[in-house]
Amino acid sequence: MQTLLTLLSTLLWWVLYGSIAALAASLIAWPILRWSERTEVVFNRVYLACLLWCLFGLLLVALVAAHEGHLKPPYGPLLASLPLRLALVVDMAVGALLLWRLIPRVDARRIRPTSACMAVAAVIAVAFGIATSLA
Asked: What pLDDT does 135 receive?
């Protein structure tokens, strides 16, 4: 029973942290997409794509951290590891793919792949800036 409650609690925290990260990512990606597409994009679909991207990214980083054995601070060796860098590249590719496939413009056409890549790059740049200022 305790294992079930632990897994349920972990799942709830994973979704909560993913939702917070997705809101931050969508608030960064939405203006970038509006600017690069030169038209309105649907914000709730930007949030949905960012939510799926953040949930995937959190799971991927947690799996790499568990594989590397760096689940507790200090995280310096984890940040310098090749598997985490490869996981972040995969995460960025999945993020660009999700944004491109899930976000329509208001004229019901899909955003361009280059716009999705630019939005992902902006989100990652802000995230790395925050992460390096905290470390």
From this structure: 63
